[in-house]
Each structure stands twice: as structure tokens, then as C-alpha cells.
Specification:
Blueprint: H1 3-12, E1 18-19, H2 23-26, H3 37-42, E2 48-52, H4 58-66, E3 71-76, H5 79-91, E4 97-101, E5 116-122, H6 140-149, E6 150-160, H7 163-176, E7 180-184, H8 202-209, E8 215-220, H9 233-247
Helix pairs in contact: 1-5
The structure holds S-adenosylmethionine (SAM).
Residues 53-55, 76-78, 81, 103-105, 122-125, 201-204 line the site of S-adenosylmethionine.
Protein name: tRNA (Guanine-N(7)-)-methyltransferase
Organism: Alistipes onderdonkii subsp. vulgaris
């Protein structure tokens, strides 16, 4: 492993805003902060917003700067990327920012029922292969995790360059009849992007350079807890098309 990565891993542990649970603190058990993030970590009673797969934490930091009366937690498994956000939050002495290094799959051991008020998912891996659909962060499996921790009416925001993931998420919304406030296939082209939506993550900058439209979906789970699995016909179609294109 590179020296720079190791330095960042070590430095992460010195940041007050950085939490790195041990495996046995989250695997099939509850973390001590579960249900106590407001009182024991932020020391206030403000709403909590998560950025899932936060990478360098651009949204976590930018949203926290604009909303001092809300608490923000960036979650990712890649410590060296998260170092960027944690260092910025530390240098700027931001009291309403946390970074949590863990797998999103462990989220129910980290947050209590209704403890989270909003979720942002920024440029997740679209997991294009249908056999990897369960890994999509808007799949029924993940919605089931979010349903446990999200307060009733809490919004989920997805920003992605992936047409496939955008279409899939719209289908998820349609299948379960979820309230959807925004479904925009090109936030810059349509002039929809406001100050918050114009915050650009590291991945977004790359996709914009490639000329890809950026999509945005904002939906809620409306108190629903059960999301039975479904296979999306478009997955198979897209795979067939790709295979045909590959074989010429
Ligand atoms: C494509 S990157 C996007 C990073 C950042 N949001 C951006 O837009 O620049 C996806 C991020 O999600 C994280 N990630 C993917 N699956 C995850 C999981 N199951 N648990 C935790 N982090 C995950 C990866 O480590 C990676 O940093």
C-alpha cells in the first residue's frame, strides 16, 4: 500500500469528526452511537442527513456549510478518499460534520429507527450487470435498510450520470408507488440545477468532462418498510443489446 494512503489512514484517526467502527462493533450487533448520534456525537438535537458512498465528501461538506442547523454524515468504505472531506471539515472547524467509515450494508447497526432525516446518494457505481442489481444503492434491498432508519417522509436524493441507474430508480419508484418530488434527466441542460444541485463531486466532474447529462431523482419511502424483489426487464434487454454490440 502507498505511503500516502497509510498516512491518510493514520491521520483520519486523529480527526474528531472521523468514526471508524471495528468490524465486531457493526457485524450483527449495534454500535454504541446507534440512537445517540445527536446527543453523543453532535451534542445538539438537529436533523441528521447522510451522504452514502460519499467518496471525498463534497456534498457532506457543502451541505453542512449551507445548513448549520442540520448535521451531516458522509459514509464510505474508502478511507483515503474520505480523508479529503474529514480534513476540510477539521480545518474549517465544522461542528455539524461527521465521516463514518463503514460498509453501507451495516447501516442498521449504526442508526436507530427514524434517526436519519434525509439521504443523499451521489454518483454510486451503477452496477450495470443484472446479477449485481442487489448492489445498486436504490435496489429494493437497500431501500429496506433505509426504511429502518429514515424518518417518515424523509427524502432520498440520487444524483447520477448513469441513464440505466436513473431509469432503474424511476422503475423502483413506480413499482412501489413512492412519492417522487423530482425526476430530472438533465439538471444542467434544463437549467434545473440550483446552488445545492450544482455542487460537483470528483466523479461528477469527470462525467461532465465526458459530456454526460447529470440526472437527479428525489423520492421518499412514505413509511413503507417492505420492498419485495423484482427483476427489471430493461436489465436483460440492456445486457442482450450489449452482448449483440460486442459480437458485432
Ligand atoms: C463512484 S464513487 C463516487 C464517490 C463520490 N460520491 C463522488 O461522486 O465523487 C462510489 C463510492 O461509493 C463507495 N461505496 C460503494 N459501495 C459501498 C458500500 N457498500 N459501502 C460503503 N461505500 C461504498 C465507494 O467506496 C466509492 O467511494
Amino acid at each position: 500500500m502507498g505511503k500516502d494512503k497509510l498516512r491518510k489512514f493514520r491521520e483520519n484517526l486523529t480527526f474528531d469528526c472521523f468514526i471508524q467502527p471495528e468490524f465486531d462493533e457493526v457485524f450483527r450487533c449495534d454500535h454504541p452511537l446507534k440512537g445517540h448520534w445527536r446527543s453523543d456525537f453532535f451534542h445538539n438535537d438537529n436533523p441528521i442527513v447522510l451522504e452514502l458512498g460519499c467518496g471525498k465528501g463534497e456534498y457532506t461538506v457543502a451541505l453542512a456549510e449551507r445548513n448549520p442547523s442540520r448535521n451531516f454524515i458522509g459514509i464510505d468504505i474508502k478511507g483515503a478518499r474520505m480523508w479529503r472531506g474529514a480534513k476540510t471539515a477539521t480545518d474549517r472547524k465544522m461542528p455539524n460534520v461527521g465521516f463514518l467509515r463503514t460498509r453501507i450494508e451495516f447501516i442498521n447497526g449504526l442508526f436507530a429507527e427514524g434517526e436519519v432525516d434525509e439521504i443523499w446518494i451521489t454518483f454510486p457505481d451503477p452496477q450495470l450487470k443484472s446479477r449485481r442489481a442487489k448492489k445498486r444503492l436504490t435496489s429494493p434491498l437497500f431501500l429496506g435498510y433505509y426504511a429502518h432508519i429514515l424518518s417518515p417522509g424523509g427524502w432520498i436524493n440520487l444524483k447520477t450520470d448513469s441513464k440505466h441507474l436513473f431509469g432503474y430508480t424511476n422503475e423502483v419508484v413506480r413499482r412501489y408507488g413512492l412519492p417522487c418530488e423530482v425526476s430530472n434527466a438533465d439538471i444542467y441542460g434544463t437549467g434545473y440545477a440550483d446552488e445545492v444541485l450544482s455542487v460537483k463531486t470528483a466523479y461528477e466532474k469527470r462525467f461532465l468532462e465526458m459530456g454526460l447529462p447529470i440526472t437527479y431523482t428525489r423520492f421518499s419511502l412514505a413509511g413503507r418498510h417492505k420492498f419485495p424483489w423484482f427483476d427489471w426487464e430493461e436489465d436483460e434487454k440492456a445486457e442482450k443489446d450489449n452482448e449483440e454490440a460486442r459480437l458485432g
